[in-house]
Amino acid sequence: MTEKIRQQIARLESFSKRGESYSDGHGRYGWRNPIREDTGPLLTALTLAASPARVLEIGTAHGLSALYLVSGMPVGSVLQTIEFDEAVAVDTQRRMDACGAPVQVRCGEALQVIGTLKGRFDLVFFDAQKDQYLPQLLALVAQGRVGPGTLLLADNVVDRQAECGPFLDWIAENGLQHQVIPTACGLLVAKMH
Fold first, then answer.
1. What is the CATH number of the domain that holds 89?
2. What pTM was computed for the model?
3. Which residues contact 54 (CB under 8 A, 6 or more apart)?
């Protein structure tokens, strides 16, 4: 982890963990909530262990989780991350560029952006609308963007379990090896087969 990335993580960790509401200016509202203090180091460790060349994050916000993911990625790897709010996406891309993080922020509705992605991802981190985890995963599967060996990470599977229910059911019904790490919000770790 470079010093610039370490400094940016410290800055973003100082932001309120209570989250913030947002609007896209077209009547769509949402809630942006940063990962908890116990989740970031786990993201780094899991990414380091997986050694992924291509990483996808769904739900960028200000880029805290992206920086933790980048901190565990091998040199030469790239992270693509999807952020719905254009102003936040632009600001976060500037932040990533300023600290030299290999991150490409893609702006738009996650399912639409997923339809434009190319190639297969070795690791996917879900952290946007919880009731959209399953549709997003199914779109990635249908388009061949994930496959055997892809590591799936998903935040908030305990504190937002009702919303994540269909996603968690699909993981279990399809026999994916998985574990929920008891972080403050619950972090799912699963491997595609």
1. 3.40.50.150
2. 0.91
3. 77, 78, 80, 119, 120, 121, 122, 123
Burial of 188 (0-12, 13-18, 19+ CB in 10 A): buried
Quick one: average pLDDT of 39-68? 96
Give pLDDT tens digits for 148-188: 999 999 999 999 999 999 999 999 999 999 999 999 999 99
Q: What would the two tokens of residue 120 be?
A: 């297969």
Domain total in the chain = 1
Q: Which domain does 148 fall in, by range?
A: 3-191
49-78 b/e with 16+ CB inside 10 Å = b?
ebebebbbbbbbbbbbbbbbbbbbbeeebe
Residue 14 CA to residue 40 CA, distance in Å, equals 13
∠ at Cα 69 (67, 70), nearest 5°?
65
Between the CA atoms of 186, 34, 165 and 183, what dihedral angle is there, to the nearest 10 degrees? 0
Which tokens is 52 given? 């992924």
DSSP 8-state class, residue 54: E
Give me the chain's average pLDDT, please.
Answer: 92
